[in-house]
Amino acid sequence: SSINPTIQQPVAGGGGEEEEVLSSEQYSCVSRQQLHIIRSSYSSSKPSPFLLSRLKEYEQRHKRCDPFSESFNRSSREQPEEKEDVELDCRYIVWTPVNGLGNRMLSISSSFLYALLTNRVLLVDFGPDMVDLFCEPFHNSTWFLPRDFTFKKLLRREEEEEEQKKEMPYVASLLQLFLSYDNDDYDKLFFKSETQPLLEKVPWLVLRSDQYFAPYLFLMPCFRAELDRMFPDDKETVFHHLGRYLFSPSNQVWGHITGFYDAYLAKADRRIGLQIRVFSLDKTPASLILSQVINCIQEESRIIILPNATTTSRNRTTTTTTAILVASLFGQFYTELNKMYKEWNEKAGATVVGVYRTNHEEIQVLGSSSHNMKALVDIYLLSMCDVLVTSPRSTFGYVAHGLAGLTPWILQSQDIEDEEQRVKEPACRRGVSKEPCLQFHANYYDTNPDHREPGGPVPVIMDCEDFQYGLKLV
Ligand code: GDP
Fold it and tell me: Are 272 and 242 within one domain?
């Protein structure tokens, strides 16, 4: 059915901070209202009452500690009058961007889970390429680190503290956490339960991560009991709930999403999302990937069953219509699929399969707002499909199926040096979970060589389907 939005633009921000508070109060996030209605009509998974109460508590803390609060001023003040004066009631985790949008959305949601577990406040240091993507997630407050905020202030204080280090127990005011794919042994200490009481004393944690590190938090004994209360049943809806809570497309992005959805996808009986992410067209030719996609949807998964053309009547009156959304940086996949299904429609005498795409950027661009907006439009449209086929190793695909709450069909990795250039069999496999994969697992395998999970009779972690040594919640 049609979403038919009435887009209200956010009230233009004024100059001073006071005015920004007022405008955020009046800010109306259309996608949040409309997605709530659309999703509640079909979502089978509901957040637990405990998770809801922790979110409510978080919102109060966020409001109390947000960048407009006195507590924020005190904890980021250049020269605290007294050491004791530092307001430890408000402790922060500041998220900083690294890598593409999928990676970013995954690390933001992991940071938020960490903030929930450790009573911190999540602030984001979005650059100009991200500020227009999402609505403010926390009612009547902001998650943006102020533009004029400088970590140097805190670092200067740090140097002074270094001086005093010998005389008194030393507590850093700022610590940078590197939880990216290339973290080293020192960074990995973060994932030890014993490190957490030390981090608790540090008011500012600044995070650089491109990973969905939430699964690892489940492996840390210090957090497990709380996580089991937040997610008491299956663990494969962690990103689903946190992602839906945090990310509501801005009115501008939502306008593009709904415009496209209403024009092309709404009327179909079934919506199929194909996410075709190719990391290197040199290594994996487009023709090979295309054959793989077709094998997957027509044979392996039998998502689309084409009736034998010779037995198809030209006068069919009842048909199930299918809309295929092709999301890819590269235009040729859409072109070829469109051509193929057009021919079939002609034989069938009706538009039974429609093939659509929103854009084809051809190259990945970092630092561009309009490029990121297009990416977010694709991610959301995919998340509104009924069936998803995703590409292996792609965080873009993880976010789409996680938000949708769908277990995807995952194309088999075709990064091959295979001279015959054959499509690997099977072309795709059903995933094991709706969750994203933690691709770089810190030290899990170092400390658990035989994959044993600490605590809990039921395994909640499995290997990822598409990433050797990756971990995912199930
Ligand atoms: P990953 O590299 O596949 O793990 O996903 P990321 O989202 O982290 O980085 C890929 C980036 O390439 C995206 O953020 C987009 O900027 C761009 N991109 C990749 N696939 C698509 C697509 O299907 N549509 C659009 N619009 N952009 C894409």
Answer: no
